[in-house]
User: Fold these one by one.
Assistant:
Number 1:
Amino acid sequence: MMDDRSKLLLKTLVERYIADGQPVGSRTLSKTSGLELSPATIRNVMADLEELGLIASPHTSAGRIPTARGYRVFVDTMLTARPNGSGFEESSIAPLQPDQPKRVIASAANLLSNLSHFVGVVTAPRKVGVFRHIEFLRLGERRVLLILVAPDGDVQNRVLFTAQDYSPSQLLEASNYLNAHYAGLTIDEVRERLQGEVDRLRVEIATLMQAAVQAGSEAASDEAAQVVVSGERNLLEVSDFGNDLGSLRKMFDLFEQKTQLMRLLDGSSRAEGVRIYIGGESGVVPIEDLSVVSAPYEVDGQVVGTLGVIGPTRMAYDRMIQIVDITARMVGQALSQK
């Protein structure tokens, strides 16, 4: 438990450290906290905060810096995200243009990175495998290009290697049959109906339909697993990491593999509003010097994906909350416009 004086000094220390990046000493706190306390009294309070594990003393300085636990107390109990209070103007951002989902999420990742000057991450929208149009094109002997067009205009291409060769007229007949009888159904619904109809369908059509169902399932799975990352190199400019090659290597491995990012963002998609992970507390991103500010985005009232900013624990959390919250709404709006 902390009294009001301790809370104010911790808040002041965190804000000064976020702004300046330098350990904060008792004299600085005495001048900026607004409390009429002597440096000696402030040193005593700082010793208590250090004993609570909220601040720490670097070896090279007499000042103190926040710990991950100190940031957590600050974010949970002392942070107020004021509209435009962090110098961030929503009206200055050009809206994301309605487009294919892949392009929207790529634009959103770039936007997050550019606004935060850190790393922007966005998961692709999760969606049921539904096709609006399907087409088979002959590429060569026993090679067929499958084109799946989703209701939102997204296009997936797959090369099928078939057991027999198909003529262009056979492929056109199969395409027309599928579009006439199965368009608008989910891949699972197509698979279920196909099981009851395969015996009475012509062999070549049934075979192509089964291949299309399998490819459609794989395409939906690939789309759901996609994470777009932008701005990794921004971390090279962060003074907190500049001389720590070990931390930088861990970070770039994280962005390259993306599996851990997917687990983290999947967890965030089940939360309402903006969520903040500080240091290694998520258990998914095991890097003590990184924080993640994330939020789900919705299309037609349904959560379909997650986005966020990854940066140093010494970040302006009020600004990041605004950036993430606004971008989530912009992505939802862009994807909702058919």
Number 2:
Amino acid sequence: MNKLVGSLKYRDLRYTQNHPLRIPRVSLLIEFLKAMGLIEEQEIIQSREATKKELLLYHTEDYLRALEESDRCMCVKDGYREKYNIGTYENPVSPAMWRGSLLATGSSLQAAQIFLEGGVAFNPAGGMHHAYPNRANGFCFINDPAVSIEFLKKKGFKKILYIDLDAHHCDAIQEYYYEDDSVFVLSLHQSPEYAFPFKSGFVEEMGRGRGKGYNMNVPLPKGVKDGEYLYALEESLKIVKEIFSPDVYILQLGTDSLKEDYLSKFELSNAGFLKAFDMVREAFGEGIYLGGGGYHPIALARAWTLIWCRISGREIPSKINSEARQVLLSVNFEEFDEDINRTYMYEHLLDRSDGEPPRGEVKRLIERLKALFLL
């Protein structure tokens, strides 16, 4: 039972004009998969909204009330901007804020439930890892990974691994589980020395109290390509396996690590992205799969299509057919790097991987992690 949890309703639940997350994501993926003949209707589970009770597993009641009130009037009430970080350019009032977040979070819980029933599911709308219990942050209003982790705890899971491959550090997840030895957090991301969230995601942040040694950050330098990213991931997974034997894991698959994405300084090909997914599965078996960041819609649709092919056991087509190409060409999106030839994105699905060996800086980072966690 392999399922994609999604909905075309996201078309009407968009962020404000000019916001990086205004782009089509889930709806584009579904349309592209159908055009490519890579999904059947029975493989799609229609998304449901999370309930208030489910959201309260992680979020505070007053914050949820503020989101709901802001959604009702499409405005920001006095004090909400300062207290809850709602209504800023980063976290604007829009249909995506509450109703879109409810749908994305409900979908992550559906993916978790499918896993509990012996299936495998991917929720591309999930992975909103920046939202804190009582405030919005980093384009995120509801933290569906944290809600899902708490849901799994309620179901009796004692050891949960959260792996985050988004280009940006999962700051809110880290903070919430920083003193919790039942949740191991592994995050590979751009170094906060040069990237959001700037204040967290450093190597030294290993957890506190009971949670010390259960939080691993792998902050990578600019320009990381497939070879050194996969080296860092493989070595990190080895360290985790020495320390922690999870009952279940959640994998966040933000596509902003791809070279085409303009909101990160990484240079991964989608072949490298797919190999990262394969590595996690080889290390820990099947898990619960969520989306995440990703601000280039064409790169995102292609990469998540590769993930779906793996999950559903399909061969990856060599060419993008004419119908699917038209789906991609119809996206209202302006390239930021107009001088770069991106025609390959409309011709084939799987790009060539870059096997560049890790630079000394990345090797030293891994050696430091080994010294911190294994000695």
Number 3:
Amino acid sequence: MECDKCERDAVMHAGYSGGHLCEKHFCASVEKRVRRRIRRDNLVPREATPDDPERWVLGLSGGKDSVVLAQILDDTFGRDPRIEVLALTIHEGIEGYRDASVDACVELAEKLDLRHELVSYEDEFGVRMDDVVEDDPEGMAPCAYCGVFRRDLLETYAAEFDADILLTGHNLDDEAQTALMNVFEGDVEQMAKHFDASLGPFDERTESPHFVPRAKPLRDIPEKEVALYAHLRDLPAHITECPHASEAFRGEIQELLLKLEENHPGTRHSILSGYEEIASLAADRYRGESTAEMRECERCGSKTTREVCRKCRLLESLAAV
């Protein structure tokens, strides 16, 4: 099959659009959509100048999503003095998995001449995820522990590096799954928080003074297209699933979405588009209502609604094993 835009052989077919694209035009399409998302979300403020640049901290895991995002950001802003990108990698302590992805992060950061910071659960918390999974004092899925620890470090270091935005590599599949999970759980207030935390354009959000705002420039790109882009551009991505991944509900939603997309191409795009509009309305509805007061955790100083934050309570539980 030929590319729709030239006579070269197509490397992909997008069922949701019916398009066939060659390597050149496929990569250009991915880049165009990411840059359009950056514009639509107003990530680059008009007041940004070379004398007062914006600092973006990118959560760089070494997986395909964050590696692709890092490359496109460098292609787009690498010579723009208004934007300063810093990569933050978190080592969870998963033998045979994270070491390889850290190597990918180091290789890419050197290639892009990108400032790269590496932190670990072991250095910060005195735990490794391999040991957490074995001990499991709370009887939870590994992702439940890891999500708490990872969010804490992302937020802590984004603030420490004085970031204006924290960028993550969530793709279309990730966000459509989260949207359906919130809908199926009937959690309208969580939809509102989702909009203000990472979905809404910056000029439409009510940002929290306690956390660095997040953005997800890859959220219009299907997961398979992210993987193909990484392959075609020969990026040093570590494309292997975490051995401890076990989010049962998300896995069911993922399977459902894949079947729906196969039978009804464009389902993921439609779900996320409608969800973002609903989340915007929900944000308008819940803004101004009384919420739990944020305070500093009495043990670590992190922002929390309780005297002791969730991270510290989990660490206490692990230490008691």
